[in-house]
Amino acid sequence: MHFGVISRVLGVLLMLFSLTLMPPVGVSLWFNDQSYPAFLLAFLITFFTGFLFWLPFYNLKQDLHTRDGFIITALFWFVLGLFGSLPFLFSHSPNLSFTDALFESLSGLTTTGATVITGLDDLPRAILYYRQQLQWLGGIGIIVIAVAILPMLGVGGMQLYRTEAPGPVKDSKLTPRITETAKALFVMYFNLTLLCALSYWAAGMTLFDAIGHAYATVAIGGFSTHDASIGYFDSHLIMAICMVFMVLSGINFALHFFAWRERQLKHYLSDPECRFYLKVIVFGMAVTVFYLVITNTYSPTVAFWQGSFELVSLLTTTGFGVADFSIWPAFLPFFLFYMSFMGGCAGSTGGGMKVVRVLLVLKQGMRELNRLIHPNAVISVKFGNKAVPDRIVDAVWGFFAVYVISFMFMFLLLLATGLDFLTSFSAVGASINNLGPGLGEVATHYRDIPDTAKWVLCFAMLLGRLEVFTLLVLFSPMFWKR
User: Fold this and answer.
1) Which of 69, 180, 218, 447 has the smallest CB count inside 10 Å?
2) Residue 24 to residues 119, 196, 338, 368: CA-CA distances in angstroms?
3) Which helix (H) or strand (E) holds 253?
4) How far is 401 from 360, CA to CA, in rounded Å?
5) Which of 145, 147, 177, 167 is nearest to 75 (CA)?
6) Long-range CB contacts (< 8 A, 24+ apart) of 286-290?
7) C-alpha span between 151 and 161 (Å, rounded)
8) Crossing angle, helix 66-84 and helix 125-144, to 10 degrees?
9) pLDDT-based confidence at residue 62 (cuts at 50, 70, 90)
């Protein structure tokens, strides 16, 4: 373990993060909302803390080992989430406690979108902008770590992308060096955000709202500058633009990279994960719209727009809303909520267990059924046209088991805080899947639940965003042995 290297990297991260506190200062001065002192104070504390972490080891020349990678990856969100909470603490509005400020900050950086803030329309513009920016920064961090770092650590079966997986994402890096990989991914991420913002602006949003919602859409975050979320704009065109970019952001950004570089769409259609993802979206939309129509909840036109939007928003784990899906009839709220457990594709900004894992679990289940019929047959799990090694399938099953056990444990903890069954179940699910809105008391916000429950949910957000194993491995005694 090289604690000096870890300290140096965290110091650099904090100093870089401190620079992101300056754009909200400009927003505050432009709109004259008097919130800029909170951001200036947060900037000074964050920068000098990072400087103190970096200074003693700035000359240290050592390579990062695998264990160092786990620690830095886990601390990336926790440390930035901790310092990201400072503007919420120092600002006169919304005047949050430390627990609420940390919850809001972690929710933004992990792109969960669960909020403890109400009355968004009356908040200072700088705070509104900062919330959206947190999600955007968390989104690019997710992509770089998921595509360039986690496969190297072999986390949760994601090493699939450097073994026999077909398609363009065969190696742990898209280009020979991780820095080049990160740069290529950032360019794709920035361009998609810019295109989304311009589309929103052309569709009728103000420039401020367009930028803010583009940040949250491409990051699959779900924060909005209005309490009514996307429903505030009452526009089918804006809903359509939002759905398109939510779907795109839920696709592996490596596929976007290769499609853009080669000017071809074949990579999307040849990737089995992407095909399965799109099929599930179409199926889910059909079920949702059909049930809303036959139950006379909405007219066919309204059912199509609201049902399709909520399905895409929840399946991709974005969490935007145009209607209160929690009061829809019969099984629909749970159907939509269950969709978020799958989430987006690996290498995307989406949460959940990831499409590739769900697909491999289903294929493994079918293999076990076939083995019952043909006990002596040699049956392989295939991803596309190539067989997936058993060690990859075992890793995915291990991830699935730990995911479920972690969910059950945190669900019991929330019940112990006094929350009802529905609220506890959905709050844990919405947090570990990085979804945001839940059911029951957390359908709109998390402000009124106990602080103890908020701390449990903060852990759930980190657990889901860090692919479970990356965080839990730090609690293993073996990890700390030499």
Assistant:
1) 180
2) 19, 21, 36, 54
3) helix 253-262
4) 14
5) 145
6) 287/335, 288/332, 288/335, 288/336
7) 7
8) 170
9) low
Contact 116, 458 (CB under 8 A): no
| Whole-number average pLDDT of the chain | 87
* Tokens found for residue 43: 């900037």
CB atoms < 10 A from the CB of 447, how many?
A: 16
For residue 162, name the pLDDT band (cuts at 50, 70, 90). very low
Residue 213 token pair: 């919602």
| β-pair partners for 383 | 386
- SS3 at position 260: helix
Q: How far apart are CA 55 and CA 289, in angstroms?
A: 58
For residue 165, which amino acid is it? A
Which letter does DSSP use for residue 284 in this model? H
Query: 382 φ, ψ to 5°?
Result: -110, 140
User: By the 8 A CB rule, do 212 and 305 touch?
Assistant: no
- DSSP 8-state secondary structure symbol assigned to residue 327: G
- What is the H or E stretch that residue 392 is in? helix 390-416
**Tokens standing for residue 429:** 């699910």
Nearest C-alpha neighbor of 310 from the set 352, 345, 340:
340
Amino acid identity at 178: I
With a CB cutoff of 8 Å and minimum separation 6, the contacts of 189 are: 139, 140, 143, 218, 253
- Which backbone phi and psi does 59 adopt, to 5 degrees? -100, 0
Distance CA 11, CA 30 (A): 31
Cα gap 344→341, rounded to integer Å:
9
DSSP calls for 156-179: TTGGGGGTT--SS--SS-SSSSHH
Q: What is the pTM of this model?
A: 0.89
User: Could you report the per-residue pLDDT of 167-219, keeping only the tens digit for each?
Assistant: 333 344 444 556 677 778 888 899 999 999 999 999 999 999 999 999 999 99
Dihedral Cα 398, 404, 406, 409, nearest 10 deg: -140
**Residue 236: which residues within 8 A CB-CB, separation 6 or more?**
305
